[in-house]
Amino acid sequence: MLKTIVAGTVLSLALAGTALAQAPKPGGIANVVIQPEPPGLMLAMLQNGPTQMVAGNIYEGLLRYDFALKPLPGLAESWSMSEDGKTYTFKLVKNATWHDGKPFTADDVIFSVELLRQTHPRARGNLAKVASVTAPDPYTVVFSLSEPFGPFMGIFEVGSLPMIPKHIYAGTDYKTNPANNTPIGTGPYMFKEWKKGSYIRLVKNPNYHVAGKPYLDEIYWHVIPDAAARAVAFETGKVDILPGGSVENFDVPRLSKIKGACSTTKGWEFFSPHSWLWLNNRKGPTANKAFRQAVSYALDRDFARDVVWNGLGKPATGPFSSSVRYHDPKAAKYSYDPAKAKALLKEAGYKGETVRLLPLPYGETWQRWAEAAKQNLEDAGIKVELVATDVAGWNQKTSDWDYDIAFTYLYQYGDPALGVGRNYVSSQIAKGSPFNNVEGYSNPSVDEAFAKGAVAVGDDQRRPIYEAVQKTLVEDAPVAWLLELQFPTITRCKVHDLVTTGIGVNDGFRDAWIER
Amino acid sequence: MAGFVARRIAKGILVLLAIVVLNFFLIRLAPGDPALVMAGEAGAGDEVFVAQLREKFALDQPLPSQLAAYLRSIVGLDLGYSVRQQMPVATLIGERLPATLLLTGTAFLVSLSLGVLLGSLAARRAGTLADTAITGMALLFYATPLFWVSLMAIILFSVRLEWLPSFGFETVGAGYTGLARAADIVRHLVLPALTLGLFFMAVYVRMTRSSMLEVSRLDFVKTARAKGLTEGVIQRRHILRNALLPVVTLAGLQAGTLVGGAVLTETVFAWPGIGRLMYEALLQRDYNLLLGVFVVSSAMVLIFNLVTDVVYRAVDPRIEVAR
Amino acid sequence: MNNAVPLSAPAPARRRGPLAAFLRHPGAVIGLVILALVVAAALLAPILYPTSPWRMVQRPFVPPFTLERVPLGTDALGRDIAAGLMHGAGVSLIVGLVSTLAALVIGVPLGALAGYLGGRVDDALMRFTELFQTVPSFALAIVLVAILQPSLSSMILAIALVSWPPVTRLVRGEVLSLRSREYVQAAIVTGQTTFTILRREVLPNTLSPIVVLASLMVATAILLESSLSFLGLGDPNRMSWGFMVGAGRTVIRQAWWITAFPGVVILLTVLALNLIGEGLNDALNPRLSRER
Amino acid sequence: MDTDARRIAVAVRDLSLALPAGGDRANAVDGVSFDLVAGEILCLVGESGSGKSMCAHALMGLLPKAVRPVSGTIRLGDTDLLGQDDAAWRDTRGRRIAMIFQEPMTALNPLMRIGDQMAEMFEAHGQLTPKERRARAVALAREVGLPEPERIVRAYPHQLSGGQRQRAMIAMALALEPAVLVADEPTTALDVTTQAQILKLIRDLQRRRNMAVLFITHDFGVVAEIADRVLVLRHGRVVEEGPAAAVLGRPQAPYTRTLLSAVPTMDPPTRPPLSGPKAVEVVGLQKTYVTGGGLWRAPRRTAAARDVAFALHRGETLGLVGESGSGKSSVARLVMRLIEPDAGQVRLGDTDLTRLRGEALRQARSRIQMVFQDPFASLNPRRSVGRIIADGPVAHGVSLPDAMERARRLLDLVGLDAKALERFPHEFSGGQRQRIGIARALALEPEVLVADEAVSALDVSVQAQVLALLEDLKTRLGLSMLFITHDLRVAAQICDRIAVMRQGEIVELKTAGALFANPEHPYTRALLDAVPGRVRQAA
Q1: Do C4 and D102 touch (CB under 8 A)?
Q2: What tens digit of pLDDT does each residue of C198-246 get?
Q3: Which residues does the UniProt record annotate as the domain ABC transmembrane type-1 (chain C) (predicted)?
Q4: Domains of chain B: which residue ranges?
Q5: Which of A123, A166, A210, C118 is the most buried (most CB within 10 A)?
Q6: Domain limits of chain A?
């Protein structure tokens, strides 16, 4: 695990090295695909993927994270933690200004924390242990925690805790503030215009607080609803950048091989998207552990990766993605073994009831995957009916627990306390959200382990707790883990330094430049 | 005529209101709601978040009062507000409508004129090779799935031949103005308008042909022949003019549906029109926006039907009496 | 007033059977042959391809005409295109026929009532029909499928719900003209009940135009089904042609055959139905038939 | 007649026109010869299917595609028209031979102004300037007696009455002063008074311009009115030819004699007066049709029945005559309760038919039955003849076998073979169908028969047979009959009393003999005067 990260770092350094050989040249326009069209760009209100991708250029967080998820300076230039792990002090950059010219100060940070606690569900969870935020001087912010929180340094990237201008939002109704349509941040690019259904245009922020950056004059985010059309747009040179997930995976190998095209799978380390099948632990055949294990044995993950995902991603071994801290590869148990699946089904006393399988309504790849999974399960002797839904239907069915098996994938945010525990602890069993413990798994020992892991300080304390919990979960098979997903970013090779952190394209284009 | 128009408008408004009520309930029968969609897209969300969104969308109100509020605003010619897009529905539709009208209008005019031309040619040459070729081609286009032609057209003209752009309304960021911009838009327009128009052209070819054949058997055509008129004059002045009446009716019906019916073309060609807006609004359960699109496209249908009737009355002097 | 008998009196012998008229129409015969092949494919699919068409039988992207086992190649998951086409035939036919039948079941009685009863009933029914004709039909179909959530039955229902208004209008028009026909008046005069008159005198005589319209509606329904499936609104458990085109479009560049074959098959089927419709029209409505 | 003085305009010799294979005969027209002479009207007479219209169309080169000339010549001056090409035909049509058609309602382009359609005549032959053409159109309109010529040339066809349209057609045909005019049943679709005017117009114009006219008709009354010479056609062959007086007065061919004898005369036979009990009594019947209208427009009102009252005695035949739009058919339908009256009563014995509703009405209907006009539209094409006749009795509770037995008897009664039971309407001729219609009406053993133009669509010889049948049945079964017709000759033959209707009103009602001998109302007089052939017959 550690080794991979080191290797990754070395590789990225090597890439940085080649880039350094060519000095960045300012100027140029980046044409990027955005899919689907975001509902808005106000990052504190909306956390959709496309919103984050575009707004990551407009807003900034206090920190950024490298490929190994170590903190990098953002709007905070330095930081420190007290011995007891309960007090964190951030020094802010002094020359940052909002796009309307007002200076960025500690008051904005305090205001943002307050605002986000109301509007941002993930920030609300992440900030749960923050007792107070204070500003001893305009460029220093102190977070005091009620008890230690292991992953605290990992919650400050732009999508998780974006900085919002106090002078615009204070005292207003956040939801209807007109500035939501013309977002103002401190980021390297400023919002210019949005032609709904066509494109969003950002322009260079000339007063950006990092000298010499950014390099690009403008960024156009093109809305192209049809996946095939997006692929054609890249081929014909209409767009230069296809962020991860914007073309179907079937097209990735072909587009990557086009002359002058480069691709990277980096930039997703922070999110570490992890896919699995929700198995309804409450009722039906899936309530039976042996049946759930049978499902896991029946799935051909290598086929899914090689054929459905065109070789992208890797089979998931358990609840922790390999880029999440304390991932334990030894916890692995399930390989493709239809015979064993059949035996387990017999043991479970499965009598051929039809099981409803909910594909994830996010495009062709997921649909194909569901079709392939259905075949896998039927080969093992499970009778499966695919249930078609759209996004709204899927969300309703999963959050109302009205399913037997459902595809999903979720971000893990680098730390088990931020992105893993929510799916397995019993306190997170609640209707109305598709992201909590939807499967309804309840195990007191797991609950306790995740509680302890979150407040333990230091890797030495946290690692054994999490390794144990991985073993328990794999054995109980509350869900059937599938693949660690990779969403390669495809660009023209003349676009440099687009992906420089573990947050990838979502971290903004502040380092990117185009060779001309 | 003014009375007729007023009567039709009054009737149209009633139909529109009925459509609003019907669709209002219809849409809400769909599983899920906009709050869930947004929560889902966010990749994170708890009950508080979803509840906040519901409040924001005014979904926490009882259904009848939501309908009453909507009807009130509709009567005031206000299509409401899309909370999801953070914009008034009218603005959103207003931004998309010109593109749709351009696309469907072009497709309509091209298909109508080509269809009538080819259809009358086929009728005149009924039974000959030219007739067989034209009707065969029309039948082929009529039977071809629109989306399939679109895909094939993109492959051929955009990818293989690189003659025409494959998607979008114009070259974004090229900074064209004036004529250059118009030319650019036209280049983008060609493929979607043609593929959309092919089907309708087929319809008009068939309609014109059969209508002309039917009219050509009427007595007054014999009268015209008995006058010693040339075949061209007979075809043009006597047959075609009368044969066009049913075509006008059909065209009126279709011009209306073209407004809302270009979902497929707009999706495949990434044309920023309201057909696509409707589909997206549906998937996002953006109720106000979806209803707004329905209201506007239905209103368009009614307007086009009215225009057709007015045209019909202008062309056919008999109507006044028949009514 | 004096209705002279037409120029060439239709002597009894001149009337030829509609079947003969139909079979003399070369297009209709071609259409019939194609349709027969499609029906045969649907019937033979479970025999020739007993395993599910969803089964991954070969490596993905096998081009057509290279492997004997998969003559038309495989799709992105290695499923047999030929098997998909065969099994899809059934779905297309079922959707086409059942939705058309459903539309007729809605449309014919409404049209008959409106046309025969006239007055307020007619007015009310026509306003109702207008309502459905004013909303763009494809958009309405999409919304309906989305509401009901995609499945074979919801698709059939949606297609039926958007395609009945023309039936109603046609039947109404026919009934309206038949109502004043003398043999209908004769039936009234001889004291037959309204229901009997509709069933015995009126509706049988609207049959020809309805049959013609229905054949075209089946074609349109198959197109609609494929369009909905193309947008991903099809039944995920049924292999259908529209689904195949939709699933193949993302890989159309690498594997043209995945989209091309089902596209061609849809085209041919719809074409066949249209040809049959034209043939039926010529045979059953000789008034409208082509130039002698 | 001096042959040298006759200027032959068109000479038709041995003309044969072939029908497509598979028809009931090989040739539509078989070896027909005739001359069209300047200043003379040649009437081509025959029943339907005689080929008379084909001859007319052959003269214009307007034969249907399937009909080909196989032999013979049509000489116009030095040219054989049959041999000329399309361009020559176009030059001939309108300029040298012009034609008017049967249906003035459909023979004019509905979308063009009358004047423009007249002007087209000049345009087609490259004559005059557009301005002159318009002036000539007005002059022509005036010549054919159209009212307000300046205005009417700007009108559309639908704004004209049937007679005015036929005048417009004639004006068009005369525009280029053709030597020959072909008139194909030009007055058949017109009311009798209008017919008289149009016949007079044609006659006048023909004399004034010294044209040769080929006049196609099936009506011997019209022949008597207008013909100089007559040519009788049967099955495409000439049966008899000669001067009008000779053919009408001393017909040689048996067929001609049969035809002529079938034409009803204007002298009603003397009938014993009837004053038995009233079978039907109609009191104060009112019906006004309201069309169009709405919030912003005043509706158009047409009176179909204005205070109509009459009684029909048992065993009596009451004729209801009038022109189109007089309301006679509406009265028939009101009596049948096929339409609802605005006011008034129809009493059937003691029963007030207008009061009955639903089931009671359905039951009462068996007492009064109807025979319809159109033999092709009055029988359901999809039901066997047996079922058509039996449906009524079955609806009134008779078992199907009994009803079929009754149908068999009725077929025998109306003179049809019992085998007809199993067959379908399209297998029968018009006259046979009308017999089936009568059988259907009789199946319910009614007291009253309403015959609405029951013989109007039939050829004259068939018409005579059906009339005889009706007469016979009425007497044998003791029926009363309300007989609606536009044809005064028919009315004279069959009716005991006759009511003359105009604009929804009965203007005169008396016995047939009295009405013809001594018409009182001016409208009745006008109607009687207009009957074609009356003058010559009287002379």
Answers
A1: yes
A2: 888 888 888 888 888 898 899 889 989 988 888 888 888 889 898 898 8
A3: 89-277
A4: 2-89, 91-315
A5: A123
A6: 25-58+187-267+488-515, 65-168, 273-485
